[in-house]
Fold these 4 entries.
Entry 1:
Amino acid sequence: MRFDEGYSGKVFIMSRPTHEEADAIIYGMPMDWTVSFRPGSRFGPNRIREASLGLEEYSPYMDKHLEEVNYFDAGDIPLPFGNPQRSLDMIQDYVEKILEQNKFPLGLGGEHLVTWPIIQAVYKKYSDLAMIHIDAHADLREEYEGEALSHSTPVRKICELIGPENVFSFGIRSGMRAEFQYAVNSGMYMAKYDVVEPLREVLPRLAGRPVYVTIDIDVLDPAYAPGTGTAEAGGITSKELLEAIQKIAESDLNVVGADLVEVAPVYDPTEKTPIAASKFVREMLLGWVK
């Protein structure tokens, strides 16, 4: 069932007609209530869906076709505008329901704080959970200007929940000095600037474990993804992110859920950001949904 029953608008390309037959559920989290610079990521999920209609259903990277994966686009969770805690509670409740049905949750953001309630839900099911975090920003603050609920804080919260030794960050090139010091002192893994090579080294350590993957579109250089709220120069290319998704798919990881966040289409009149994001979602579906 979609959140908006009777909806006849855009869904992600080749979405199955019913929730029941799906192995994976795509759902949107249109929230940007806590952003520190530019809002607009609440419009990301629907724009990614619209951009997906220009995709080929076949992936030469995975040598697979979308008809080989059963997934259902449930639409956007109707989050209450301006109410962060209630929004997070609704996200956690929904993801718990997906997991109870043994389906793969694939979330579209929305700001990065939305990953925090997802991990709370996934951790309830997988007590030995690890997380792969691909992002430009460390997101390790305890608060931002007095607010503990901020898109600058989700990874710190997740470290405190599942243990910093189970958090693996890649592509990081922005944050406070205290955040980088926390990464060193806590025992979490942080690869600065790059993604593919450090990921290749880490994946064998996670073999067989349940892993959640969160991707912030701003890990890409703004030349490839200008449509995001907090763009950071010096990022990776679209090709490198595609390779990272493929490396995860080829590994022995048990990927149990994923999200792609921080697409803010208003800042990208060329639409290259949602177009790239939709392709990444296609690869995530083909590579990670078993």
Entry 2:
Amino acid sequence: MRFDEAYSGNVFIGSHPNFEESEAVIYGMPMDWTVSYRPGSRFGPARIREVSIGLEEYSPYLDRELREVKYFDAGDIPLPFGNAQRSLDIIEDFVDKILAADKFPLGIGGEHLVSWPVIKAVYKKYPDLAVIHMDAHTDLREHYEGEPLSHATPIRKVADLIGPTNVFSFGIRSGMKEEFEWAKENGMYIAKFEVLEPLREVLPKLAGRPVYVTIDIDVLDPAHAPGTGTVDAGGITSKELLAAIHEIAKSDVRVVGADLVEVAPVYDHSEQTANTASKLIREMILGWVPKRR
């Protein structure tokens, strides 16, 4: 993909037309090749952009406007349908180029496996990286039915790469017993069921460190986000997730990249999920992009 021209499709509201002048780059990862239940998250990035036109550009939470941050929407990465490994390689190369230009990468998925190549790229630039992971699921399997490239495996891959003690998961309410046991045995932090209060306890421990944040929309209760591939009852509210984003924004961590994944618009005709996702992205832009330095 080229960065020297603006994306010709729908762009996220308020996006800047020039890559070079931008601080951050929004990009879509339209992949759902490995999902085990319901496909459709490959359509998430495009729909989140489309509904963003309904957003106000001002955040009353942060008292900032989108025009205060320059971000470039690079559109969706062209990925070969059904080819998981090639798709992951393309994503990693794409993010390498964003980081080489000293931009903040803000990805939109797509299934959660797309976070794996992004974090690999970010880790190359920030070897003392920590990862904050918000999700309903542990995603700590080594494989799913014999397949190591699965939406159930990305956080295990990340933990193996950067060390389990550098991964902090929040809102987890589903996973195999063996996954929880592995996390405990290897010193990986998992906050079951809740996000905000345990996050407040962890953030001071990450002060000054570069942090990548990955958010699976299914950390929200299905009442707040029905449009996702693997819904799981008992989740947090959209109000709590917004508060968690703001908690990170006011902390002393250096957010150096982020993603929001697993929005599958076809399962939510009200478009509540896509609209919520676009608002979350607005808050991530305004709260986190200025914190990367």
Entry 3:
Amino acid sequence: MSSWFASIPSPGPEWQQIPIDIFGLHWRIQTYAIMILIGIVIAAMWTSRRLTKRGAEPGVILDILIPVVVLGIVGARLYHVVTHPGDYFYPGADLWKVFAIWEGGNAIFGSLLGGAVGAWIGCRWTGIRFWTFADALAPALLLAQAIGRLGNWFNQELFGLPTDLPWGLQIDSGNKAIPVGLPDGTLFQPLFLYEIIWNVIGVVLLVLIERKWHLQWGKLFALYLVWYGVGRSYLESIRIDPSEFSLLGIPTNVWAAFVAVVLGLVIFYVQSGRHPGIEPSPYRPGREWVRPDAEVDSDDTDLDEKDTTDDDGVPAGSASAKATSPTNG
């Protein structure tokens, strides 16, 4: 084994919570939750800037963010509980623990599913094209995920198989995820760190690819799914604490990563065929936002008329497309 001093230490239990005393009230905020919140705020700010550059109304991200965050959290917790039922449903279990998201246990694939539903709702509400929002979000989402993984470090979770590498991760011997029989001082693969590095590299690649090829119509988000799915498929395969379910000997989370890769490839192929050109507007037809100081000229009008369908393939001139008024919700 590597020397205990040539390894990555994990924060002690005292670092998992931050005590706050206000007006005689005592609060304990989970460090895990703080890291997730920081990631959400940074992702929202960057996504908002990217949407604004595409012609969206400044601040429209706030109307989309509400259902995204709420359903993303619900989906993350639901997916984790469903794939780890033994941790929550057993004789004498406190069923309220199912809702204790501040104690850790939130699955990113569940968050993606719930967040996608929330994004669709928010985009329908504001008139923003769903795929425009997805592309604007893609690199920011990877960055937020990288920041959130620091929360796993504070919670001493998301670690891999034992290792003798010099960057092995120290985990307290009382951690319930450690397999029985391992000697004290065993070091583990720091999967949280691997994912942080993988995600940051992905952020750089997505930004560079977007600048060079101007990917739109959901194609940049498709590459996000491929990149993230490839990385997670490996990390989940060497994880100590995988989901309790498996198919053909492969853990559920690895299958979910495979699905993300396939879905990304399908989206890229389909959207490349349907929309080879540039988006005329970040808004669905009939929901465009016009800056108060902007003058509508014939060139802009002609450009908008070239886009004859919305994200769902509904003709721009149809009654359903005209039914909604141009508002940002």
Entry 4:
Amino acid sequence: MTGLVLQSTAGSATMLSLLTFLGILVSVVLSVVILVKGIQGYSQTGDVALPGLAAGILLLSGAPLLLNVLLTSLTGTGLGTVTVLTNLTQLLGLALITYVIYHT
């Protein structure tokens, strides 16, 4: 016998999956909180840039993560399609933020 010990990685894989899901959840929740605060700021100040920036942040961070999880979990969408859709969502968020910065 060589002294090799068999170890199960099921516990660490489960923990990694749980931490990944928790990170995604926190990112989505924070993005939605930023959107709500942007809308509240608009209603208080009338500054149209606030909801635009908040929506851009949502599209840049929270929406692609949620879209990725939903498409891979609930549909049979391929990895390439999911990657293209999430990247387009992020690009739309960046475009919205850029538009708000330069046109308000």
